Amino acid sequence: MPTPSPVFVALDVPRKIEALQLAQLLSPHVGGFKVGLELFCSAGPAIVEEIGAASVFLDLKFHDIPNTVAGASRAAARLGVKIFNMHCLGGLEMMKAGATAAREINGDTKIIGVTVLTSHDAAQLQQIGLAEEPALAVRRLALLAREAELDGVVCSPHEIEAVRKECGADFLLVTPGVRPAGAALGDQKRVMTPQQALQAGADWLVVGRPITAAADPARAAAGIMER
Q1: Domain extents for the chain?
Q2: End-to-end CA distance of the chain
Q3: Is 145 exposed, middle or buried (0-12, 13-18, 19+ CB in 10 A)?
Q4: What is the CB neighbour count within 10 angstroms for residue 199?
Q5: Alpha helix (H) ranges present in 148-188?
Q6: Strand 152-154, strand 32-35: pairing
Q7: How far is CA 202 from the centre of its chain?
């Protein structure tokens, strides 16, 4: 049996028809699909079922008071998604409330925390009051997510090794900021190639435009690990 692909394709498109066409085209070549804010707000929760909930990483980054995040987490778990996330900056109580609520509904759904966005660098962290380098902030927030009993975190490729060392082999690491050699960085700042990220210890890679904006998305997806 072939090894399952570790790639979630980011379906960051504005319309349901585009998302479903990409999902159908790419499903033989990837491990799942990320449904983020743009597509979810455009197409609604039904898009998760139409793509196939068991292959969806629901990337809505919950961040609110604990009771509100608990309710949103129940809804995400009820959809049956493979993974959903919340912001670690929401704090320990919020993360615990969300994780507990989700697991009451669906014990199979994985819950991960967002540490520091891969579009942020040290200067931007300073602007929002985090007076530390991204790597230190990521490690601190990952440890907080582990204390809250989340299944793992989202982190850039540059923090994988440090988080793995601090949080253990069973802690799920989902890694955006992955770009094949020679690809445009877009708004990403802390990046690696797919092979580099996996070698560093990532479990899942999130790849968007290098696949979805390619002239031949299926070919790009099939060969993404070789670039």
Answers
A1: 7-226
A2: 23
A3: buried
A4: 13
A5: 160-167
A6: unpaired
A7: 11
Residues 189-208, mean pLDDT to the nearest whole number: 84
- Specify the CATH architecture of the domain 7-226: Alpha-Beta Barrel (3.20)
From the list 96, 139, 99, the residue with the least C-alpha distance to 116 is 139
Query: For residues 36 and 39, what is the distance between their CA atoms, to the nearest angstrom?
Result: 6
Burial of 96 (0-12, 13-18, 19+ CB in 10 A): middle
What separation in angstroms does the CA of 42 have from each of 15, 75, 110?
6, 18, 24
What is the per-residue pLDDT across 99-136, written as a single tens digit (0 to 9) for each?
Answer: 999 999 999 999 999 998 878 888 888 888 887 888 89
Amino acid of residue 66 = P
User: What is the rounded distance in angstroms from the CA atom of residue 201 to the CA atom of residue 168?
Assistant: 11
- 74 touches 98 (CB < 8 A): no
Catalytically annotated residues: 61
